[in-house]
Amino acid sequence: MNDIGTFAFGSFEAMWQRQLRRTLRRAEPNAVNGRCVRTMTEQADYSARIIRIARYGDKVAFAELFSFYAPRIKGLFMRGGLAVGQAEELAQETMLMVWRKAALFDPAKASASTWIFTIARNLRIDAIRRERYPAQYLLEDAEPELEPSPSDGLLKAESEARIRTAIRSLSPDQVAVIHLHYFDDKPHSEIARTLDLPLGTVKSRLRLAMLRSRGLLGEE
Amino acid sequence: MTHRPSDDVLIAYAAGTLPQGPALVVAAHLALCPDSAERVRQFEAFGGAVLEQAPVAEVSDDALEKTLASLDSYGPAQVLPRGNWLADLPEGMTLPAPLEHYDIGRWKFLSPGVQWGSIGKGGPARSRPMLLRAKPGMVLPEHTHSGTEYTLVLKGTLRDATGDYHVGDLIVADASLEHQPAAGRDDECICLVVVDGRLRMKSLLGRMVQPLLGF
What are the phi and psi torsion angles at A96 (to 5°)? Predict the structure, then answer.
C-alpha cells in the first residue's frame, strides 16, 4: 500500500528527513532557481499593485489582483467546506477589504499573498463564528517600531520565497491536508472523512507538514 | 527561560483553526513575546503560500464587475469601540492590546485569596476566557480539565509542579495535567485563562463555585 500512514514511524521519519533535506537544498536562497526568482518577482508585482490602490485608487491594479486572487480565495474557501455561493461571496468580500485596507499594507511586513491570506482567514471566521478573530497584526496601523533595516525586507522576501518553493514540492496529498488544516475548523476526524482517508493517515500527513515547516523555518 | 506555546498551537492560530477563546489568549501572548509573534508571522506566510497554490475556482462572470461597482459605495471602515473594563487593575498595569475591545467584568470571589473577572459577553460560556487574580502565595483551586487549558501570566509569577512562570509566559496544559498553580510569594499574580473544554474543580468549594463560573 502506497500510503505514508502505514510506514513504521522510524523509517517514515528517516524518509521524511531525506525528502526535507532535498527540498531545503532546492529552496536554498542562493541557489539559481528560476522558479524561486519568478515567484519573488510576481509577489513584488502584486505588492506594487496594492500600493497603487492605496496611493491612487487604481482600479486597473485592483482588477489584476482580483483576477489572480479571487478564484484562489474561492477555491480555498470551498476546499474548507463552504458552499459555492458563500465561497464566492466571501471571496468578493475579501477583495473589497483589500481595496479598503490597502493603505495598511506594509510590504516590509508581509507579501501580498500573506496579507490577503490573513484578510480571507479573518473574514471566513467572522462569517462562521460571527465573532472577530483576534489576529489583526497585519491589518492594523503599524505601531511605531524600531527603524527596520533595508535587509529586513530582503530577508523576509527570501524566507517567503523558500516557503513557497517548498510547498510547491509537496505531493498533492500533502497539499490537500495542509489546505484543509489551513482553512478549516473541522477536527482531524472530519478532515479524514472529507478526504476519505483513515484518521491515522491524516494525522501523519499533518505531522509531515508540521515537520516540514519546522525544518524550513528553523526551529528555535 | 520563557515558556512559549508549541508550533502546533501557533500554526492553528495562524491558520485560523484555533477556537476564539484560546486565540485571544495566544494573541495577548504575542503582544508580550516577540519570538512567538515572529513565528506566527512565518506561519502566516505559509498560509500566503497555500493561498497562491489553492485550487482555482472560477468566479462568476460578473463578479469583478459587481465588486468594482461596490468599491466606491463602501463607507469608512468601522472602528471597534473600546470594551468596558469594570475590574480595577493594580496601579500602572495595563492589559495587552488584543483585550482592548472586550468587556471585562468586576472581580468576583472564586476561592480564598483568589478572584476572577469575566471577559466579553455572549458566546459559549465554557470556552470563554477570564482573568484570575491571586494574592501572593495563594493557591488556585485544584482542578482538571477535559480540554486544553491556556494560562498567560500578566502580572507577578505563577508556579506549579512544572516550574515558575513570569509575565508573558503562556502555559498550555492538556487534559492529563492535574495541577494546582499558586501565585509567587512576593507579588500578587494576574493571569488570563481559558479552558477549551470542560473545567472540573476538585474541592467541594470549587464544585460549588463552578456553576457560577458557567463552566
Answer: -60, -40
Residues B42 and B29: their CA atoms lie apart, in Å, by 16
> Is it the case that residue A112 has pLDDT exceeding 80?
yes
- Residue B155, φ and ψ in degrees, nearest 5: -155, 145
How many percent of chain A have pLDDT more than 70?
A: 48
Contact at CB, A111 and B24, closer than 8 angstroms: no
Q: What is the pLDDT of residue B110?
A: 85
Residue in A with minimal Cα distance to B28: A134
Q: Is A213 on the interface with B (CB under 8 A)?
A: yes
What residue numbers bound the domain in which B38 lies? 1-215
Verify whether the Cβ–Cβ distance B45 to A159 is below 8 Å: yes
- CB proximity A205 to B under 8 Å: no
- Phi-psi label, residue B149: left if phi above 0, alpha if psi -120 to 50, beta otherwise: beta
Q: Looking at the complex, report in whole angstroms how far the Cα of residue B17 sits from the nearest Cα belonging to chain A.
A: 5
Contacts of B9 (CB under 8 A, 6+ apart): B18, B22, B26, B172
Q: Please, what's the largest Cα pairwise distance for chain A?
A: 58
Give me chain A's average pLDDT, please: 72
Give pLDDT tens digits for A56-89: 999 999 999 999 999 999 998 988 788 999 999 9
Contact B46 A167 (CB under 8 A): yes
Q: What burial class does residue A10 get, using C-beta atoms within 10 Å of its C-beta: 0-12 exposed, 13-18 middle, 19+ buried?
A: exposed
Chosen from A35, A50, A76, A143 to mutate, greatest number of chain B CBs within 10 A: A76
Cα nearest neighbour of B26 on chain A: A134
Is A174 an 8 Å CB contact of chain B? no
Q: Is residue A186 scored above 70 in pLDDT? A: no
| ipTM rounded to 2 decimals | 0.87
- In this prediction the pTM is 0.79
Sign of CA dihedral A54, A58, A59, A63: negative
Beta bridge partners of B131: B117, B192
Q: Say if A92 is an interface residue toward chain B (CB within 8 Å).
A: yes
Look up residue A114 and give its three cell numbers: 500573506
Domain count across chain B: 1
- For residue B25, the domain's CATH number is 2.60.120.10
pLDDT at B8: 79
User: Percent of chain B, pLDDT > 70?
Assistant: 81
Q: Which residues neighbour B51 within 8 Å (Cβ) at sequence distance 6 or greater?
A: A69, A72, A73, A76, A113, A116, A117, A120
